[in-house]
Amino acid sequence: MNPPPPSASTAVTHIAHIGLGANLADPESQVRAALDELASTSGIVLERRSSLYRTAPIGYDDQPDFINAVARVRTSLQPQALLDALLGIEQKHGRVRDFQNAPRTLDLDVLLYEDRLISTDTLNVPHPRAHLRAFVLLPLLEVSPDVVIPGIGPARDFLAQVQDQAISRIAEQAAG
Predict the structure, then answer these.
(1) What is the C-alpha to C-alpha distance for residues 147 and 83, in angstroms, rounded to an integer?
(2) Strand pairing partners for 153?
(3) pTM of the full predicted structure?
């Protein structure tokens, strides 16, 4: 007879940080809804959510500003399974990948997964440009003030390098 599966309270959990962004179809609502969906996804416990930030687009400028946030989660999902869950949420929100840096209804990225360095065809962790983007660093430091980006260094050490990027807090941190 097989033992029962571990309960959520006894399952091995990992700390991960998820970046959220949107700039189409009421982006503030898209990001808020995605945070709620993360919180209700099996294998994911939402520990903290950052404030919402308005940011200028990077890479392709002819598009609306983005709404961005970061979620700190505990998860029993392995990195690829976590990414698959995020892609499922994006798909529910009508995400279309027309071209790199294109406008989007929702973008979810695994920014960090514990202190792991991961490089596969579908997943790179830490996110390769996390330390170069104010829209990642500010909300990331809000949910995890002492976070270290594996292979790169303390996130706070990179704030001076992104101070010229347009970003403003538009909504205070919510519960969760």
Answers:
(1) 21
(2) 149
(3) 0.90
